[in-house]
Each structure stands twice: as C-alpha cells, then as structure tokens.
Amino acid sequence: MRHVLTALLLFSLAGCAGADRPLTLSEFYGFCWPMQQGSGCWDDNLCEDYRGFLQQEQTSKAECIKGCNEIETMEWRQNALRGCDGSIRNATDWCEKYCRRLFDYGNPAQAE
Q: Which domain of life does the UniProt lineage start with (predicted)?
C-alpha cells in the first residue's frame, strides 16, 4: 500500500513540472478558445484580441498584466451583454498567466 501511495504522489508532482516554463502563444490560445465554445462568444475575436496583444513585445510583467486588464475592460464593454463574462474572465486569467510566466521563466519563443 505504501508503494502505491508513493507512486501516486510522484505522478501528481510530475504533473506540476510544466508550470515552471513560459506559456507559448499556441498554449494560451488552446486554453482561451475552448471556454468560448457554448457561450455567447461564438467567434474567436476575444482570444484573438488577447493573442494580438501578447504577440507584441512586453516591457515588464506589470505592464503586460496591465494590458491584459485593459483588454478585459474593452471586452466587457463590447461583449458582456452577449453572455461572454466567463469567457472574458478566462481569457484575462490566461493572459495574466502568460505575462507572469514570460517574466518569471523566460521567452516563450524559446519554448516552442
């Protein structure tokens, strides 16, 4: 029984190893887009707006996160009445994660 518990612990810890690297733009999009399906945000303009921002050179983690929040405000104004609130929050969360990992772990272009 002890060996089974040890194996389960090792497998669960191995799943966390991927968090110590930057996200790629493809990964960002992969986490952003599925949340839009089945919501009032039927097109991918929401994720494309965030991805377009993230493709630009980012000068600092704080400025990158600030940009994510500015896009969120713009998206709320344009899409909140369409039932996009969950999709907008999800996209902003992943945008912020992208920024944090970019500055905490390096250039995502090197991870692709």
A: Bacteria
Residue 45 Cα to chain centre, angstroms: 15
pTM recorded for the entire structure: 0.76
Q: What pLDDT was estimated at residue 9?
A: 40
Q: How many alpha carbons lie under 13 Å from residue 13 in its C-beta half-sphere?
A: 6
The per-residue pLDDT for 108 is 53
Q: Which residues of 71-89 are buried (b: 16+ CB within 10 A; e: fewer)?
A: bbeebeeebeeeebbebbe
Q: CA-CA distance, 42 to 30, in Å (whole number)?
A: 15
Distance between CA atoms of residues 42 and 34, nearest Å: 10
Give the residue with greater pLDDT, 81 vs 100. 100
Tell me, what's the pLDDT at 1?
47
Q: Report d(CA 112, CA 22) in Å as an integer.
A: 10
Instruction: Break the chain into its structural domains and give their ranges.
Output: 20-110
